Amino acid sequence: MSRALGLALGWALDQAIGDPRHWHPVAGFGSVAMALERRTYAASRAAGVAHVALLVTSTAALGVVAERATRRRGPARTLVTAAATWAVLGGRSLTREAATIDGQLRRGDLDAARVQVRNLVGRETSTLDADEVARACVESLAENTSDAVVAPLLWGGLLGVPGLLAYRAVNTLDAMVGHRNERYREFGWAAARLDDVVNWVPARVAAALTLASSGSRERAAQARDTIRRDAPAHPSPNGGVVEAAFAGVLGVRLGGSNTYDGRTEDRGTLGTGPAAGVLEIDRASSLARRVSAGSLAVAVAVAVAVEALSPRGRPRRRR
Length: 319
Description:
Blueprint: H1 2-17, H2 25-40, H3 45-69, H4 74-88, H5 91-106, H6 110-116, H7 130-177, H8 189-212, H9 217-230, H10 239-250, E1 254-260, E2 263-270, H11 280-309
Antiparallel strand pairs: 1-2
Helix pairs in contact: 1-4, 1-11, 2-3, 2-7, 3-7, 4-7, 5-6, 5-7, 5-11, 7-8, 7-10, 7-11, 8-10, 8-11, 9-10
């Protein structure tokens, strides 16, 4: 039960205190990745594969070492799992950022909101109007609830500390180099594709939890129809599924055109309701919190099942 307890404790810590302002472990990993990139970078997929493989396997190895060092000490294993879970989750910080943007828009401080939303999205925000800033915030709440909460919890439930750390390494590398610009089109290919793979199942679990958290059969049915109809048009095989689920449950329209590094990208239209506006941020945050809690329950169930099926989890037969 140490894995399940550790996941629950780490989730509770994230909900209570969120990310630290300084000395965040993920930021430390990013610094290491940037330093390594100066040595490994080349405009080729092979160089990108080597870069990702080295960082992800090294991070997973740290998790293996941590678990082996505590394999005979249940409380220590629980605390290690809790610390790793807290380090890789981003649920509290995500809703905190959304609350800040919500307050800025309600006060009419559009310039501040345009700057603040850059913490959540990679699109250009300097010319967005209030509703477009709100749409960006709601879309980020949807996609990042999957990426920063559901996915790490599920990988932690399945693989423990190595799964938690390796997943966060993959997701962070995708955010750093998985871009379609001139520098990273080839070098970042491996990070982007691997991130798609490790998030495929979690994104669909997140969408299912979104439907389960809708509060009514009508909203759940509407969200299910939105996913089937609109998600395939989204450029992300995973982000579109979760964003469509949020659009359907909230009864709003997400998607549209965004500008990245001077390049405009059509993200498709998700939902048939009115365009998401300022009032939807708080509703989307509440939905994200319900999905987060549901994902913890699923991850704990996975962890209990895995530990029960493992050789260490089976009761020894008396001889």
